[in-house]
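Late entry, written up from scratch paper. The run itself happened at the end of the previous shift, but nothing got recorded in the book at the time, so transcribing now.
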Amino acid sequence: MDAALSLGDEQRAANPPRYADAEKAYTLAASLSKDARPYVGLGNLYYDQKKYAEAEAAYRRAGQLNPADGIAYARLAFMYSEMFQGARARRSRRRSSGRAARWPHNPPTITPRWLWLDHLSEGRLQRGGDGLSALDRAIAAGGGLYIELARVLNSERRYREALTPLNKAIELEPKNYTAHFFAGIVQQKLGQLDKAADQYNQA
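Output as recorded:
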């Protein structure tokens, strides 16, 4: 299962991503064990492709399998917010269709996920009960939100900044496999090979 899961991660991280191969690997991993991680992988994969219904189903399955792991619920919360922001931007574009000349100066935008963490702390979560439930589960589970913040920073190639939330996640959950593994990836990208090896060994 771990080998299939790692293969899925590799295919998803390829440039360009090999989505079909990653989906096969994650599906295989899911069939080999009642582990939440393959479903989180599938959720991330579908999320990358904006297949939100499929992503939601995968994240919810992951949450059912491991209610103590906040990663799936954190991803759900972020996804709901992005869907809400996207819908609001589309409505704004329709309302402003007669004023298109103004858009270059004040374009409708989708809030970046890393900025959205500020909204979480102020309780301004969108999509009502679904998002609030997902956020509550993520926070209750510990390091999930910190890992998600690190994922966003990593995707923006802000590797040094990504280490801060990863270290916080490890502090909260010293035996969190995902936090150690992801920290190893980030440190490897920074050329900190000894530290990366240590994190992989911890994982």
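The first helix runs from residue 2 to 13.
(Scratch paper discarded after transcription.)
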